Amino acid sequence: MGINVKSIGLIGLGMVAGVAASFQFSAAAQRAEAPLPLEELRQLADVFGLIKTDYVESVDDRKLVEDAIAGMVASLDPHSVYLDKKAFREMRESVQGKFVGIGIEVAMEDGYVKVVSPIEDSPAYKAGLKSGDLITRLDGVPLKGMTLDDSIKKMRGEPRTKVVLTVSRKGEDKPLIVPIVREEIRVQSVKAKLIEPGYVWLRIAQFQEPTVDEMAKKLSSLYAQNPDIKGIVLDLRNDPGGVVPGAIGVSAAFLPKDSVIVSTNGQLADSKHTFYARPDDYLGGRGVADPLARLPAALKTVPLVVLVNAGSASASEIVAGALQDYKRAIVMGSQTFGKGSVQTLRQLTPETAIKLTTARYYTPKGRAIQAKGIVPDVAVDETAEGDGLNGLRLREADLVKHLANGDEAEAKPGRHDELEEELRLLALAKKQKPVEFGSKNDFQLAQALNHFKGLPVKVARVDPEDDKRAEEIVGKTEAKSGVKPEDKKAPVSKTK
């Protein structure tokens, strides 16, 4: 038996060494002085051999190695991850802004999947699904108790395959049975509209490769309809981030050319970089025409409010931080998530990769975003009654094994992992209906419009310094608008 274990262990060591060699990091050339820890790799090989010989049932070699890689990478921080074949494909689909599914935006309500809105011209849209519909079953399987992510995965699939939805609709006595054929869906990352004459609402749900081009088209169209734009609300609430060139391009649309947008710093030479408001940095070398070249020059000076909340992360924090540093915009809402780390994709095979944290992000003034986020200039709650679900969200600093800010000696211990956070938010979501961004009932959007007009803004009182800063900003707005102190009521504050 000893000979058998040893021989299997040697095979395992060869597999581990092969996996280590396949990483092909540029770090290998730049850090040649750090040899592989052969003793520890031998221990890993021994464990591999023991599992192969002694475990209660046979385990696939590939699964063992993949799980070892996944565990090693996941132990670093919440955002470093091994991407197997399926996860790698889904990540590429997300970056490109497309996936195969039925085409609906969804949320959880009372344990069921609620249709927020069908994507225009999608299979769901053509099948007649409506905002407010509750999906109770998929192919006859109840969704009650299933997580939102699992429900979404079941709705996705291969092109031209069918899924049957059971739908509960207000006003209908019986459930509706809706068969839908899956198709490739292109996600709309940018929405824009005139919410009032002269005021534009520009929402970016996620930064994707087409984001800058979509934004330029929509802003140009709105400007052609109404050249007298008095203010733009850039809505980044619940924007989880995405591709960095998209964030650079959105920032560049409102800042002077060649402005520093964001910088990165890490161990490797190629992780130390500064990105500017230049086509080379936001087009990503795609060799296409600059979409920002067609934007009206007047948009560089139009008053701007950026709405953020605890769900604004990563690329959206880059935009908010840059516009805040240059005082180009007033950032309004609540403190952002604080994901200020750079993940670099290192491909292992044609179908697998690891997403590895390689650097931290810094705003133009050198502020580290990681584990702190962007603090708004004017704190405004999610609703008139308080900050609701947003006030109960966890942030990067709450996550176990989160990366330190960079100004700290080490990260403070986190309290939750991402799975716990997801389950907690699902439980809370059952008790409170989400805010529909851009609607007439959007309280924070209404406060942004009040700011433009020099009207009272209902701020969330956090501490005296925040109140003082909010009052100074409101005062400057009133001076520009010509509103006299005696013409307005005192701003209403709420104690959190």
UniProtKB/TrEMBL annotation:
Keywords: Hydrolase, Protease, Serine protease. Residues 463-490 have a biased composition (Basic and acidic residues). Pfam families: CtpB_N-like, PDZ_2, Peptidase_S41. SMART domains: PDZ (SM00228), TSPc (SM00245). The keyword Hydrolase applies. It comes from the Bacteria. Residues 463-496 are annotated as: Disordered. InterPro entries: ClpP/crotonase-like_dom_sf, CtpA/B_N, PDZ, PDZ_sf, Peptidase_S41A, Tail-specific_protease. Residues 88-170 form the PDZ domain. The keyword Hydrolase applies. Belongs to the peptidase S41A family. This is S41 family peptidase. It comes from Pseudoduganella chitinolytica.
